[in-house]
Amino acid sequence: MIDIKNQIVLITGASSGIGAACAQGFAQAGAKLILAARRFERLQDLAASLGLAADRVHLIQLDVRDRSAVESAISNLPTSWSEIDILINNAGLSRGLDKLHQGDFQDWEEMIDTNIKGLLYLTRYVVPGMVKRGRGHVINIGSIAGHQTYPGGNVYCGTKAAVKAISEGLKQDLLGTPIRVTSVDPGMVETEFSQVRFHGDTNRANQVYRGLKPLTGEDIADVILFCATRSPHVNINEVILMPVDQASATLVNRQP
Prior knowledge:
This is Short-chain dehydrogenase/reductase SDR. Keywords: Oxidoreductase. By secondary structure, the chain is of the alpha/beta class. The protein has one domain (about 10-240): NAD(P)-binding Rossmann-like Domain (Rossmann fold). The protein has 8 helices and 7 strands. Helix 3 (about 65-75) packs parallel to helix 4 and helix 4 packs parallel to helix 5.
């Protein structure tokens, strides 16, 4: 088992949901945190709630879709924060649930640019340092949607299938190095996910979880922390987890 105390962990999409839960879990384990998100005020609130000293947390306002911003953020890290041990590519979203032939182009671009290109940008700029130092772990947050397509999921499912393939390809490319690669792929998790998907329609978002007990951000963070703390020779390639009330991307048990 690896002691991650004082390891530097970069979490994207850290302002809410799974990202914020990861910040909490890794902070409790003694890690130093680089928290990145678009909503800087939310990051500041999160950092304050964690009660960490200034030398234990570093905040970055970052839109992962902006390649030049990602490059600048990584290359301009203070020396004491530059040797990233764990990268958690958590930033991601879903927009809409339209049929493909009725889809919104802007929704498509936002999902592709965030879920695929943003993950690629962070990986491309962080992993070379890991290889050079001979240590590191990339943890990508995928989805059951990357394994099973569902009606209306078309482009979102495509982006998460890409995350699955990218994770597998990265693991193959890093063979011969000690760098580990993990994809954590949840089913239904009650975060801001559905509100974002439905453009702030809270009533519609709440219906997604009606009558069942979904996973929480803390549940996912617990699994991510488990993956990160295994013995150095152990690589957990992929984890698929769902609530007990879910059996597939489309099959759920709802109480009346």
